[in-house]
Amino acid sequence: MTETTRNYDRILGNWFTGVDSYPDSYTEGCESVAKWQSEPDRSGQLAAFKAELAAHIRDSSDTPMSKRDHQWLNDEWLRNLWYDLFGPEPVPDDPYPVSAEDWGHPRETPYIEYAVGESEDDATEGERAWLAQRGLTHAEIRRGGFARPAPADYRDRLARLTAEGRRTPYDGEV
Amino acid sequence: MAGDDGSGPVRRALTGLLDAWLDLDRSSAAPLDQARSQAAVVARAASGARPEGVAVAEQVPPLVALGLTAAADSLAGLARVFADEAGALVALLTGVPGPVTLAVLGSGPDAVVASFPAGPGRDYVRDLVADAAVDERQPSEVAERVPTVNAIPLSVAAGLRSAFDESVREDILAMVCHPRGHAVQLHGPDVPDEALMARVSWKKDPMGRSDAKNSWLRDADGRVRTKHGLGHVAGKFTTVKSLAKPVNALLAHCGGTLAGLHAYLEEQASMGRARIFVPADVAGLEPGDTTGFRGAGTSTPEMARHWKDARKDTMKAGGGPMPIVRTDQIAEGEDAGAAMILDRADSGAWLMVTCYPTGVPDEKFTRLRSTTS
Questions:
Q1: pLDDT at residue A67, rounded to an integer
Q2: pLDDT of A89 strictly over 80
Q3: B123 SS3 class
Q4: Interface of A with B in 108-137 (CB under 8 A)
């Protein structure tokens, strides 16, 4: 899909971007998903956000606003956000799915980077619950990169999606 | 190395190598010159002391010249080792390999930069070398001794009180100084430089909170453990007046009333949180209104990631500090302003979680438009 909706932009902007300046908002949001899903006035917004997130990952169509990163890194960031919010269920129709065993070994999402400590001993309640829902343990986590190298056919795929009108290109996207 | 394993240790090693190389480049010429002139002094002294001294004096200059040539060769060899290793590390970080062409020792920092292949490698090193001339380093044992302050200083509270219009004063004060917020304690004018340096270098919470998300511990062997959340910049407003500027701009945008403000925040928020970016010109923020520290050599998102990975690595290893550079985000940022985060409290009133200066607006924050344009 080409455009982002206001609901999508607002949830991202109010909670999940700007991780470098204020990581707590991102991690608090990740720990709030179950609560939001149980609240009638919020569950619908979140479900719509989830469906749109999947569509943008599929179509590489959420372009980084600052244009300081490549589209691929933005896509990979969104895949991390998906996992951080919704867990290991695969992104529907993801052309480049992350294999389930990569998460946490060694793929390090922002939640793992900022909220998961080195040991079980000083873990917060939210951190324990997050890890348990994903079948991860402190002992097994190996911290590596947050993104894979762009696939060989990625440039062609972007061009095709652009030609099909499913995304808007920008200078320096690859 | 966009997210591959190991960028932290690689960046740390590169930082150390460049330090040593720049130091060698800067300091190797002087001792050689000094040895040469000392030899001349020795020769003069020897020739006058005893009759045999003349013969000794004649032997000194050629011997010293031989020694100095050997020393210069061995220093150049050392520089070659630094250059080759630095080149390999830069290739790992940028993903672009290329030969390093060494200049004569003593040619200066620009020559060190120019010895890297043109393109991403040279760009990467240029940023590191430029910051190396002005960086600061705070060892973790110094960070450990930096005092923490949890309370809002009375003088700041009083200053804020007078900064807001009487009609909304109490409500806005309660919003900005809410117990769940920390704009004043983390980004207010009374936060000392050393606390900002400890925050960015070692992720030490200036408030000294002891909860699981913010507690900070330095082991006897120098390892540092904390989950305190921070990227590669820590900044503050230098005066109460500058701290109040974005708040007043937000208020003005909403018609100057609490009801207007609440209606605006309800409109912008999702799940009870609103994040607003107030551009510097809308807030009236000027150079000097903010200060802080950023990681050295962080001019691109990827370089900033490498710096953070290196900080993580040195925290875990009990190593030395990563270099940091003083910054005024309003003066230096490409699209600077203040970012604020507001939450709806259970009471329905809004509280300010935080408000901090930023050089680049966080993506998709609600951008406050000027009321006059």
A1: 67
A2: yes
A3: helix
A4: 114-115, 117-118, 122-124, 127
Lowest mean pLDDT, pick from B18-22, B65-69, B192-196: B65-69
Interchain CB distance below 8 Å, A22 and B301 = no
Which pTM does this prediction carry?
A: 0.90
- The secondary element (H helix, E strand) that includes residue B111 is helix B109-114
Residue type (1 letter), A105 = H
Chain A stretch 139-168, residues whose beta carbon is closer than 8 A to a beta carbon of chain B: 144-149
pLDDT of residue B5: 57
pLDDT, one tens digit per residue, over B194-209 is 999 999 999 999 999 9
B227 vs A36: CB contact, 8 Å cut-off? no
CA B42 centroid distance within chain: 48
Q: Please report, for residues B36, B41, B63, the alpha-carbon distance to residue B53 in angstroms, rounded to integers and kept in the order given.
A: 19, 13, 15
Contacting A residues, span 9-48, partner chain B, CB-CB under 8 Å: 9-15, 17-25, 27, 29, 32, 36, 42, 45-46
Given a cut of 70, whether residue B372 has pLDDT beyond it is no
d(CA B114, CA B102): 9
Instruction: Give the pLDDT of residue B200.
Output: 98
Buried b (16+ CB within 10 A) or exposed e, B300-312: ebbbbbbbbbbbb
Residue in chain A lying closest to B316 (CA): A118
* Alpha helices (H) in chain A, listed in sequence order: 6-11, 23-30, 33-38, 40-59, 71-86, 110-115, 125-133, 154-163
